[in-house]
Write a structure and sequence with these properties.
There is one protein chain. With 378 residues, the chain is an alpha/beta fold. Helix 14 links the parallel strand 8 and strand 9. Helix 6 packs parallel to helix 11, helix 11 runs parallel beside helix 13 and helix 16 packs parallel to helix 17. The two termini are 31 Å apart. The model has no long low-confidence stretch (mean pLDDT 96).
Length: 378
């Protein structure tokens, strides 16, 4: 009964924070794909091949630092699952890399300009299925997906037994078309394409978007949790593109995906890497109190709060560099300053993007300790 009460208390705190409702303190969210195995002494090669062990080591890492309210999402192994998102091969520890190193996305020019027409003609699912063997083992990807599907309910149950809510409890496709095409073509070539053959690129993006929107419409109801879903952005950041390109090839797609998710009662968690400060004002166009901004330490979150006030929550934002190279006092003070400047309402605290593999354990402890004090600082 005590564990259930703890879980319900934390779940309520997370859901209120995501909806910009008053809370006693900011929820603390675990994000540490590489950090969990490293801090618990598991080889990265084992983490990348054993789904069950990978899941359990995340739970063990959270338990080691008492105070977490939630985990970003559930799931097994890390690394190779990134291949379809980037349309790129991923080097894995124990295969192409030393056993205890971090996986690495190997960007290369694997798509050609003719592939834009092929995506339109064949449809995104057919084209993607034919392309995947060039970057990953389809059987391995299918095995990971099958394991996650078969064990999803159990992982939610184990989270609840440990007292942890799940922020992204929904299952829905949320691929911003720019990102995989950019990875498959390589950044340089893709930017050339946006200038030289924009209509061909846009046609392929529209074909991808149609599939994504249909998938969102058909998505199952979210599991109990924050009812969120991860909406990624990295090459689409404002710092990476001119306003002309961003306004044509990025923002309209984000808006349509967000609107479709919100219509299903799913909260878009905008996991945005790099610096989006230039275009933060555009977030005012999204449904109020229905989205979460999840930056990586580079976006000006104080500017975000100034522009959005209590109309959008934020999950973040302790920079990776600080967790690795800072001291516990610096981490603690960063969190305290963040809470003071942007307030507790609509704030969930977590590492920016993800706690790096080489995060100092004492810095993670300082982050959790400072976060638990956030109610007193409000």
């Amino acid at each position: 009964m005590e564990a259930e009460a703890t879980y319900q208390e934390r779940l309520a705190r997370v859901k209120k924070a995501m909806a910009c409702e008053p809370v006693d303190r900011a929820p603390v969210v675990f994000m540490g794909q590489g950090f969990a195995p490293r801090v618990m002494g598991m080889k990265m090669s084992d983490y990348c091949k054993d789904n069950e062990a990978a899941w359990q080591v995340k739970m063990d890492a959270m338990d080691r630092f008492p105070g977490f309210d939630a985990i970003m999402n559930v799931g097994g192994v890390g690394g190779v699952y990134l291949a379809p998102w980037w349309l790129s091969h991923v080097n894995i520890p124990g295969r192409e890399l030393p056993e205890d190193s971090l996986w690495q996305v190997q960007e290369a020019e694997l798509m050609t300009q003719d592939d834009y027409e092929a995506i339109v003609a064949q449809g995104w699912p057919v084209w993607q299925k034919a392309f995947i063997p060039r970057i990953a083992d389809p059987a391995e990807l299918a095995s990971i997906a099958a394991w996650n599907g078969a064990n999803r309910a159990r992982m939610f149950r184990e989270c609840a037994e440990h007292g942890y809510a799940v922020v992204c409890s929904a299952v829905a496709p949320t691929l911003v078309p720019f990102e995989p095409l950019c990875g498959g073509r390589s950044f340089q070539q893709f930017i050339f394409d946006l200038h030289r053959i924009p209509d061909r690129v846009e046609a392929a993006m529209q074909a991808i978007l149609e599939v994504e929107l249909a998938g969102i419409k058909a998505a199952p109801e979210p599991n109990e949790g924050g009812s969120g879903v991860w909406v990624g952005g990295w090459r689409t950041a404002s710092a990476m593109l001119s306003p002309r390109l961003w306004n044509r090839f990025v923002w309209p797609y984000i808006v349509q995906i967000v609107d479709a998710l919100v219509a299903r009662g799913i909260t878009p968690v905008l996991h945005w890497d790099q610096d989006w400060t230039r275009d933060l004002v555009r977030l005012q166009e999204l449904p109020a109190k229905k989205c979460v901004l999840n930056p990586d330490g580079m976006t000006d979150v104080r500017k975000f709060r100034e522009l959005l006030r209590d109309n959008m929550s934020m999950m973040g934002d302790v920079p990776a560099s600080l967790l690795v190279a800072g001291t516990p006092d610096e981490v603690y003070n960063y969190v305290a300053d963040l809470v003071r400047d942007i307030g507790v309402t609509g704030l969930l605290l977590c590492p920016g993007c993800d706690a790096p593999i080489n995060t100092k354990p004492e810095n993670m402890a300082a982050f959790v300790a400072a976060s638990l004090e956030s109610g007193k600082a409000a």
